[in-house]
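Input.
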Amino acid sequence: MQAGQYDTVIRGGRVIDPASEVDGELDVAISGGKVAAVAAGIDATNAARVIDASGQIVTPGLVDLHTHIYWGVTYWGIEPDPVAAVSGVTTWLDVGSAGSYTFPGFRRFIVEPSRIRAFALLNLSAIGLVAPTWELSNPDYLNVDLAESIVNENRDLILGIKARIDRNTTRGVGLLAVERARELADRVGLPLMVHIGSGPPTIREVAGLLRPGDILTHCFTGGDMRIMDEDGKVLPEIQELQKRGLVLDIGHGGGSFS
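Output.
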């Protein structure tokens, strides 16, 4: 493209793009809604708009791997587009807001109209996160066959399975929820994310059902399902799983830390 034929030039910012190993004070030229050039000293003489990014960081859209964006339907949930505009997060992974009963609405009313790019983990509970507690306490909601069909109908969006495991969600069903989540993840060939907090069950019981590639979220919880022993050392079971590929996810919010 010839000099001056850009819609927008972002000048003088620190451009960081890990994918292309770029980290330096550069200009970014945009044409037709796409990045046309990244270089020092781009000619912006005839650009329709010039943005001075001096002292700022310029990056591709960021990815947030632990979000809840089923606004208006779930207990936790924000509208992603307004937040994306001020945070730079353009790709959002919703981790279990929707279950098999509510996922069609999540796709129709959240994903499709949004400007951001969204993916999801399907909640094992068919009702998803409509309330802060009890979603796994009724075995009728732990329908593996139905959840499997929802995954197969939405493989372009669903990247894994989610189960919140602590005493406030399982309410006495024990390991049944983890076992069914494991069964579902194995059937559909996707990773399982398990939320931990305060048991029962115990962290050791949960760890026995995790596989390489699974995710343990809120891993630094202060609840009794924490991954450290009384001496502050990571449990041997967790160390071994992590060596084999278990992913430890901090999660979000102050409640994720002990």
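The helical segments are 80-87, 103-111, 144-153, 167-170, 176-188, 203-207, 236-244.
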